[in-house]
Amino acid sequence: MNYKNALMRLNILIVLAFFGVNAVTLAAWSAESHAPTINLPVNDALFLELVLIPAGQFMMGTPLPISPTSFDLDESPPHLVKITKSFYMSKYEITHRIYQAVMGENPSNFQYGIQFGINVPLRPVEQVSWKKATEFCKILAKKTGKSVRLPTEAEWEYACRAGSTTKYYHGDDTVAIAVDRIAWFSVDKYVDTFNSGGMTHPVGQKEPNSFGLYDMLGNVEEWCSDYYGPYTANEQIDPQGPAIGTNQRLKVGPYRVLRGGSWLSYPEYCYCARRSDLHEAGFYKTTGFRIVVECQTCPPKTELIDKIESPPIEEEVPDKIKKL
Questions:
Q1: Pseudo-torsion of CA 207, 209, 213, 214, nearest 10°?
Q2: Cα gap 87→150, rounded to integer Å
Q3: Confidence (pLDDT) at 174
Q4: Please, which residues have CB within 8 angstroms of residue 136's CB and are 6 or more apart in sequence?
Q5: Which ranges of 145-237 does DSSP label H, i.e. alpha helix?
Q6: Which of 50, 125, 102, 71 is nearest to 287 (CA)?
Q7: pLDDT surpassing 70 at residue 241
Q8: Which of 58, 115, 154, 269 is 20 to 30 Å from the Cα of 81, by its Cα?
Q9: pLDDT tens, 260-317?
Q10: Could you report the per-residue pLDDT of 24-55, keeping only the tens digit for each?
Q11: CB under 8 Å to 236, separation ≥6 — which residues?
Q12: pLDDT in tens, 133-167
């Protein structure tokens, strides 16, 4: 689909939505030709925007550093990873509004008080454990008939990098003012002095990566499906992670991977290869997630695809197609 045809299709979808075509119909029609973005219905009024991530390969991890303090040792050795199947990933982190609609509850810390403003439903949900995130996926899969799950760690980093090989997906500059373009973070974990203000923020406010994914770095850490464990230098194809989990202190147990850093992280810790671990039943006010929907019929692609640019989430849309 070329850009002009994609834009015309998007305009038609908006017109149909204005005249009352429901989200389920819109999602089904959008999926027919495997457009770069599709809509996954959550209920009659809400849908999740998903971005098509084309199959490809990348170098996962971080090379050996000049300084031993410049990165965590668990990011090495770098290794070639091949992602053989295209997949859809949610454009934004799962928000309060979406989580509430699916789970019937909202565990988030940042939802009460006037300091959080009127856009609380658009903040990423947090205080979510890996177990709760996977339960969310199972419920949404049952409602939609789609294969919904957490991304593998390899899928997450591949999607985050979006073809880049630098520390951040916009370059290597670690200066806070540069990272400010793409992430919500802190420069002091005890007396916050930079852009997060000590809290999460509505999704989609920073610059996306080249795939059109927002908030892959900062705001909330994101769960992956894998157990946490050490890397090897071997080439891997569609890796699923180790069979047994450990944590960074090498304690064996059901420890899962978290990626991307959060509003509480220093900017130098909000980068593509950054890894951390947490017990699958644990959570903090920094832990959230986004989802993957498996693409059963999308042909493998190794090149970047044309993308439809969505309007900013602040733009008014008909009630029938409220987002996020």
A1: -30
A2: 12
A3: 73
A4: 94, 99, 102, 103, 128, 289, 291
A5: 153-161, 176-179
A6: 125
A7: yes
A8: 269
A9: 999 999 888 889 999 999 999 999 999 999 999 998 776 554 443 333 333 333 333 3
A10: 333 333 333 334 889 999 999 999 999 999 99
A11: 60, 79, 80, 81, 82, 154
A12: 999 999 999 999 999 999 999 999 999 999 999 99
- Mapping DSSP to helix (H, G, I), strand (E, B) and coil, where does residue 26 land? helix
Q: Is 7 helix (H, G, I), strand (E, B) or coil?
A: helix
Q: Are 261 and 214 contacting, i.e. CB atoms less than 8 angstroms apart? A: no
Q: Does position 195 have pLDDT exceeding 90, yes or no?
A: no
pLDDT interval class at 175 (50, 70, 90) = confident
What would the two tokens of residue 19 be? 């005249």
Distance CA 222, CA 260 (A): 6
Residues 185-207 have a mean pLDDT of 80
**Domains, the chain, ranges and CATH?**
3-323 (3.90.1580.10)
Q: How much is the average pLDDT of 184-200?
A: 74
Residue 113 Ramachandran class (φ > 0 left, ψ -120 to 50 alpha, else beta): left
What are 212's two structure tokens? 């059109």
- pTM score, whole prediction: 0.80
Measured distance CA(107)–CA(43) in Å, rounded: 20
| Neighbouring C-alpha atoms within 13 Å toward the C-beta of 315 | 8
Q: Which helix (H) or strand (E) holds 258?
A: strand 255-259
Helix (H) or strand (E) holding 80: strand 79-83
Mutual orientation of helices 3-18 and 23-31 as an angle, nearest 10°?
Answer: 160
Distance in angstroms (rounded) separating the CA atoms of residues 106 and 291: 17
Q: How far apart are CA 232 and CA 13, in angstroms?
A: 46
Cα separation, 321 vs 311, whole angstroms = 13
Q: In whole angstroms, what is the distance from residue 125 CA to residue 90 CA? A: 14
The token duo for 130 is 């890996």
Q: Cα 202 vs. chain centroid, distance in angstroms?
A: 14
Is residue 206's pLDDT more than 80?
Answer: yes
